[in-house]
Amino acid sequence: MPLVGRRRICSSSATITERTFSPDMAEINIPQAEADHLLAMEKHYVEVGQLTFPPAGERILIPLISSDRRESFALDVTRSQIKLTKATYQTRARQVVILLRLDIDGPPHRNPDDEEIPCPHIHFYREGFGDKWAFPAPPERYSDIGDLARTLDSFMEHCNVTLPPMVQRGLFS
C-alpha cells in the first residue's frame, strides 16, 4: 500500500513520524547522541531466575533496566523456524527504538545507498534512518557466530549488559 501521508508528533527529544498506511507502526527518531548514550548505558537483567535459549521458531524477550533504574530496555532473541542457524538479537530502548541488532545467517541487507551487506551483519541506530543501515559484524567481537548462545553473550557485552541473565542452552542451541 502506498504512503499516503505523514504526521509528525513531537514528544520531548523524540520525534514520532506516523505513516498513515500503518497506524500501528511508528518511526521513532531520537538524536544520535541520545541513542549512543542509551546504548553505552549500563544495563541489568530485571527479573530473577534463569531463561532458556529459545528453540527454533520461537523468541524470548529479556527485560533490562539501566543501573540508575531510569531507563528500561528490551533485548529480543528470535530464532528462525526453518533455518536453525538463523537468529536475530536486538536491543530496544523506549519500547520501539532499535539501538543495536545482529542478524545471523539470514539474507544480505541492502543499505539506503544500495550497498549489499552479507550476514552476519549488525545494525546500529542512525538518526534519521533508525536501523536501516547495516555493517559487517566485527569478527573480533563475534568470533564464533555458529554458537548462537555464545554469540548472545557477546551481543549482551556489546550492549553493555553488565548484569546479564543466566541463559540455559536449549536442546538445539
Brief summary:
The chain is mostly beta strands. 12% of the residues lie in helices and 40% in strands. It is globular.
Descriptive labels:
single chain, 173 residues, mainly beta, eight-stranded mixed beta sheet, three-stranded antiparallel beta sheet, 2 helices, 40% strand, disordered N terminus
Tell me what you see in this structure:
- The protein has helices at 32-40, 148-158; strands at residues 6-11, 14-19, 26-29, 43-45, 50-52, 59-66, 72-79, 87-93, 97-104, 109-110, 116-117, 121-124, 134-136, 161-163, 166-168.
- It has two helices and 15 strands.
- β6 and β7 form a beta hairpin.
- The N and C termini lie far apart (38 Å).
- With 173 residues, the protein is mostly beta strands.
Low-confidence stretches: 1-25
Number of strands: 15
Going by helix content, strand content and strand pairing, the class is mainly beta
Order of helices and strands: EEEHEEEEEEEEEEHEE
Largest sheet: 8 strands, mixed
Per-chain topology:
Layout: E1 6-11, E2 14-19, E3 26-29, H1 32-40, E4 43-45, E5 50-52, E6 59-66, E7 72-79, E8 87-93, E9 97-104, E10 109-110, E11 116-117, E12 121-124, E13 134-136, H2 148-158, E14 161-163, E15 166-168
Parallel strand pairs: 4-14, 5-15
Antiparallel strand pairs: 1-2, 2-3, 4-6, 6-7, 7-8, 8-9, 9-12, 10-11, 12-13
